[in-house]
Amino acid sequence: MADIVPLLQQQILSARDQGTKLNIIGGTSKAFMGRVASGDPLNVGGHRGIVSYQPVELVLTARAGTPLIELVAALDEHDQMLSFEPPRFSAASTLGGTLACNQSGPGRPWWSSVRDQVLGVRLLNGRGEHLRFGGQVMKNVAGYDVSRLQAGAMGSLGLITEVSLKVLPRPAVSCTLAFDLGLEDALGLMNRRAAEPKPLSAACWLDNRLYLRLSGAPAAVDATVRQWLGQGERLDDGDAFWVALRDQKLAFFAGKAPLWRFSVNPTAANPALEGDWLIDWGGAQRWYRGDASMAQMQAMAEAAGGQVSLFRGGDRQAEVMHHQPQALQTLQQRLKQSFDPDGVFNPGRLYGWM
Questions:
Q1: Is 22 buried (19+), middle (13-18) or exposed (0-12) by CB count in 10 A?
Q2: 173-241 sits in which CATH class?
Q3: Which residue of 6, 9, 158, 243 has the fewest CB atoms within a 10 Å radius of its CB?
Q4: CATH of domain 255-342
Q5: Residue 311, SS3?
Q6: Per-residue pLDDT of the chain (354 residues; tens, 9 = 90+)
Q7: What pTM was estimated for this model as a whole?
Q8: What is the C-alpha separation between 190 and 266, in angstroms, rounded?
């Protein structure tokens, strides 16, 4: 495949010279995230393909525009996986967009996040320089960990061109248990189960039903099923539920009502807000559908020891991320100035003040 990096560099330098802005796009599956995008399209979707995959070393390097389905297909051949279970909002979802938007699936508290699995990146900064940070081994970071800094930056710090990741062996078996429980009882049981030395790999509550996934060696999973099953049931199609949750294909995610994402202390009581809730990550990630003000939601999130964002829908012209203290705003603006001094990349996409 032809190297399109020189073309991307040329577009960046041209925008810088002309004082115009660029809107980084890949597979467009996450275009709904963040604030309203502006600027001329800078398309990295054509910069795709696996650069290096070393199954024995559990390391994979791929270009940012590579669709996740291509990575998963390559890993399947060696019974390995992207442990952070990246959401695939469409077949076009890319590796670069997953990192830029910091997206991880149901196993995040147990199998870690995309940010945790990044070993290194290559990046085009606002001066058109093609820089490399980190590497392809697990102990190589000195100074600022710029690779992981890209997680959740939504392209505001540069154009990711290449990503190196840790991968993991796929669990030998997985099993899903389901229990009929109300929200508060489910939260309590989630936290008790998470504290036990068992092969728990996902915990979600929806529509008065708690789902627990166990993954690992057959003996460990079977022993835990016998111990935990009680009044619950073992689901034959459990994997389908977790895939639908990961990709937000459950009925809960359908509709036009604003979708709010809370990231809070897993042991906190749920915010006192009537409406539809989905509790994921053992209580640490909570989704709410409904109309509300950002100020109201931020107060609830802070009371629960966390933050909130307007994930989908609602007013995308206003701020959609949790308010940052002035000290953090200043730090983030300094980082932006270092990587993108002319403010070429994704202006205002993450915050109005960036």
A1: buried
A2: alpha beta
A3: 6
A4: 3.30.70
A5: strand
A6: 668 999 999 999 999 999 999 999 999 999 999 999 899 999 999 999 999 999 999 999 999 999 999 999 999 999 999 999 999 999 999 999 999 999 999 999 999 999 999 999 999 999 999 999 987 655 555 545 888 999 999 999 999 999 999 999 999 999 999 999 999 999 999 999 999 999 999 999 999 999 999 999 999 999 999 999 998 999 999 999 999 999 999 999 998 999 999 999 999 999 989 899 999 999 999 999 999 999 999 999 999 999 999 999 999 999 999 999 999 999 999 999 999 999 999 999 999 999
A7: 0.94
A8: 9
Please name the residue that has the structure tokens 């049931």.
233
**Pair 61, 50: CB distance under 8 Å:** yes
Q: Residue with structure tokens 């495949």?
A: 1
Task: Report the alpha-carbon distance of residue 282 to residue 284 in Å, rounded.
Answer: 6
Q: Decide: 150 and 335 in contact? Cβ < 8 Å.
A: no
Question: For 5-169, CATH number?
Answer: 3.30.465.10
Task: Report the 3 state secondary structure along 47-109.
Answer: CCCEEEEECCCCEEEEECCCEHHHHHHHHHCCCEECCCCCCCCCCCCEHHHHHHCCCCCCCHH
